[in-house]
Design goal:
The protein is built from eight helices and seven strands; from the N terminus they run βαβαβαβαβαβαααβ. By secondary structure, the protein is of the alpha/beta class. It has two domains: 206 residues, 3-Layer(aba) Sandwich (Rossmann fold), CATH 3.40.50.720; 36 residues. The protein has a seven-stranded parallel beta sheet, with helices on both faces. Helix 4 links the parallel strand 4 and strand 5.
Length: 259
């Protein structure tokens, strides 16, 4: 299927690896020119070159911290009129809410709620004026099924989801959609790190812990960044103009609810 977005321009945040990289690669394969962001320049530059060689599109890496105003301004200066924005940031650390201070909450909200809102604020009016825009917020399955030790993530990402629920209904008649992609367990560095820690604690091998975790999922496996990216590319396509304010859960069936 032709996604109809060849020649469009996209900003993809936290795109040096994992799900952000999967989204960037999928958009590039559809002919979208990219401005990609991450904090680590060496990893980001390597990803940019990999995407260029694989797809031939223009890829501009901007190694900054987008939770800062200066970082966001640098990204927007490289792509002042984006057609597509993929908001993405690593989740806050797990823990006991009794231990979290105000600074912990502010840091989580800055990264996982306010930064995406600032990108939306900076771009959505231009998108509406031009008659096309796609904004995808990578959040978490914890928006749908909160996890007690991920309270910082539950709170910040749910706040973003609630904000988008209102705005997305205003922008859609101008050709701009805003949706959430909610990843469950995907084969990323973060997930592999989790299973390495479990193996060290349990005395089992990493492969044993990883395999046991995968088998617990109804799909019998973990998701891949490539299939996550494909879903993102569809939400950014011309075929998804009637989908807005929605939250697509991708977890292999792990969430047990009907709704």
């Amino acid at each position: 299927m032709d996604m109809g977005i060849k020649g469009r321009k996209a900003i993809v945040c936290a795109a040096s690896k994992g799900l952000g990289k999967g989204c960037a690669m999928a958009l590039a394969r559809e002919g979208v020119d990219l401005v990609i962001n991450a904090r680590t320049k060496s990893e980001l530059d390597a990803t940019a070159e990999e995407i260029r060689k694989a797809t031939g599109v223009k890829v501009t890496p901007i190694a900054v911290d987008v939770t800062t105003e200066a970082g966001r301004n640098a990204v927007l200066a490289a792509c002042p009129e984006p057609d597509i924005i993929v908001n993405n940031a690593g989740g806050p650390p797990p823990g006991d809410f009794r231990d979290w201070k105000r600074d912990d909450w502010i840091k989580a909200i800055d990264a996982n709620m306010l930064t995406p809102i600032e990108f939306i604020k900076a771009s959505v009016d231009g998108m509406m004026k031009r008659g096309f825009g796609r904004i995808v917020n990578i959040t978490s399955s914890s928006v749908k099924a909160p996890i007690d030790i991920l309270g910082l993530s539950n709170g910040a990402r749910s706040g973003l989801t609630g904000f988008v629920a209102g705005v997305a209904r205003v922008t859609v008649k101008h050709g701009v959609t805003i949706n959430g992609l909610l990843p469950g367990p995907f084969d990323t560095d973060r997930l592999r790190g989790t299973y390495k820690a479990r193996a060290a604690k349990s005395g089992k091998s990493y492969d044993e812990e990883y395999s046991a975790g995968a088998k617990m999922n109804p799909a019998g496996r973990f998701g891949t960044p490539e299939e996550f990216g494909a879903a993102c590319a569809f939400l950014c396509s011309v075929h998804a103009s009637y989908i807005t304010g929605q939250n697509l859960l991708m977890d292999g069936g792990q969430y047990p609810g009907t709704y």
